[in-house]
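2024-03-11 09:14:02 DEBUG pipeline.ingest accepted 1 chain
2024-03-11 09:14:02 DEBUG pipeline.ingest length=275
2024-03-11 09:14:03 DEBUG pipeline.predict start
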Amino acid sequence: MAGGLGVGRRLAPGRDELGGQSPHRWSRLRLRHAGWHGSELGATPSRDVWAGACRRRGVWAGLGAVEEGRVASHNPETDHRIDAMDGVTLIINDHRIIEGLFDDYEAAGDAQARLGYAAKISEELSLHATAEEHALYPAVRRTLPDGENHEAHSLDEHQEARRFLEQLEATPVDDDAFDRDMRDLIDRMRHHHAEEERDLLHPLRDALDHEGCQRLGRQIRRAKREAPVRPTVDSGAGAATRDELAERARALGIEGRSEMDAEELSEAIERGKDG
């Protein structure tokens, strides 16, 4: 029986296999049965097959796109465009990238190809959720009317997605339940993205000034760089929640803590310790 989304023999392609590009971190949902040089795209494609498919979709290593207003990531020629993006644009860009992977999964012709796309979806969702929980949702809570309820609802949906991913990891890919649950997760996340863009992202862009949007973009990029490699049901926004960080900041007498997000609290706490 084919394995589920288990740990593969290779965690990610090496730098040389990606033409000098840095390999991206893969989540725990990796391939069990094939090395990077397998024949199926989405499972373990060869360098040429993978790179060719990425070029056709405007994507480098599945992390970005230049077509239809999307912007490539992990590409020296376009990284500067990502760095210049405001926070709302970054999140919407992520949504389009992830939804492209959803389309790829649904079009995949066999179980091994679906397994590969599912692994990549898990990785991208994990990075995206961490960025939202560390940076976007605190901004929503501080800025939008009823922001706390919006944040709580979105966090609940993230935890639901994490539970799906944990369940999928334990399910063999040739089990009918694997494809059924994966398609259920995809439907839920498409709804989550549409709702988030309508109720959070567009209102947030209207509410923030230019510097606020740019600051949010910097926070999102930093959160992604520091994100855990694998999603877990209980990981939430990270090892320490914002509430825990706020309590530490209170104990240190840090002023303005109620207006800080998790990243800003962490930095203030470190400065407070040094002082």
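2024-03-11 09:14:41 DEBUG pipeline.report The two ends are 58 Å apart (CA to CA).
2024-03-11 09:14:41 DEBUG pipeline.predict end
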